[in-house]
Amino acid sequence: MQTAPFYSLFRGIAVEDIWHDNDECQIGQSIATQDRLAGQDDRKHCPYCVLHNTPRDTRIVRRR
Q1: What is the pLDDT of residues 9-62, one digit of tens each?
Q2: Which of 1, 8, 29, 56 lies at a C-alpha separation of 20 to 30 Å from 38?
């Protein structure tokens, strides 16, 4: 689920400085709540948050 954007001075398990906005993102979850700062701070958007934010087609398609 999308949340307000946040970043941290600590990366958690990320390998670069990024911001997050989805509570299903494991990288964002690795950042302690007290270490989260509101906003984006000119960082890249977390690619895993982007994936979680992208609508998916959930229709069942039967193959013949």
Answers
A1: 987 788 899 999 999 999 999 999 999 999 999 999 999 999 999 988 777 777
A2: 56
Tell me the domain boundaries of the chain: 2-53
Tokens read off for 50: 């982007």
Helix (H) or strand (E) holding 29: helix 26-29
What's the pTM value of the predicted model, to 2 decimals? 0.81
Q: Which two tokens stand for residue 16?
A: 């670069």
Q: What amino acid is encoded at 2 in this protein? A: Q
- Chain-centre distance for alpha carbon 34: 17
